[in-house]
Design goal:
Blueprint (H helix, E strand, L loop, with lengths): L1 H9 L3 E8 L9 H7 L5 E6 L2 E8 L2 E7 L5 H10 L2
Antiparallel strand pairs: 1-4, 2-3, 3-4
Length: 84
């Protein structure tokens, strides 16, 4: 998993990649809401004019990828699809 996170960080225009654990208490992310959104999906992409955020569920954790607007989403998908 760490190799995949490092690979995501190397994609141009990716600003940050965070692994959010179930017990984390980060005030900027409502983990319960994100878990509800991801209940039937493995990945959720939020795209806006200032960038995008991709939430990816993996076991009991959530990977949060923040990027600039011109990130290659296909490259993100390729790496996320390789995580099992």
């Amino acid at each position: 998993m760490q190799d995949s996170i490092d690979a995501l960080r190397q994609i141009p225009h990716v600003l940050s990649v965070e692994l959010i654990d179930e017990g984390a208490t980060d005030s900027s992310v409502d983990i319960a809401s994100i878990e509800r959104l991801l209940s039937n999906k493995k990945k959720l992409s939020l795209i806006g004019k200032d960038g995008c955020a991709v939430f990816f569920s993996y076991k009991s954790s959530i990977v949060l990828i923040k990027s600039k607007p011109n990130v290659n989403l296909g490259a993100l998908d390729l790496i996320l699809d390789s995580i099992k």
